[in-house]
């Protein structure tokens, strides 16, 4: 799967002061790492077809992560 959120990740890297002109390759690597972590979290739910509730349940101990997901409308 290609980099879907490349522009958004590059913007975040710029806004957070990581670099003035983030490279597409770096943003793509970050996106791939995020995908891997999400897959790993979903596999931990042991659900046939994981839902948003499964993901939120898995992340329940990470209040900061849950707050971020809620801010993005993932509730």
How would you characterize the overall build of this protein?
The protein is an all-alpha fold and 75 residues long. The protein is globular, with a radius of gyration of 14 Å. It contains four helices and no strands. The protein folds into two domains: 44 residues; 27 residues, no CATH class. The relative contact order is 0.10.
Can you give the helix content as a percent range? 55-70%
For the record, the count of structural domains works out to 2
| H-E order | HHHH
Low-confidence stretches: none
Percent in strands:
under 5%
**Radius of gyration (Å):** 14 Å
Q: What general form does the structure show?
A: globular
Mean of residue pLDDT values: 75
Distance N terminus to C terminus?
25 Å
Structural class: mainly alpha
List the main descriptive attributes of the protein structure presented here.
75 residues, 63% helix
Q: Could you provide a short overview of the structure?
A:
The protein has 75 residues and is mostly helical.
Topology:
Layout: H1 6-15, H2 24-44, H3 52-58, H4 63-71
Helix pairs in contact: 1-2
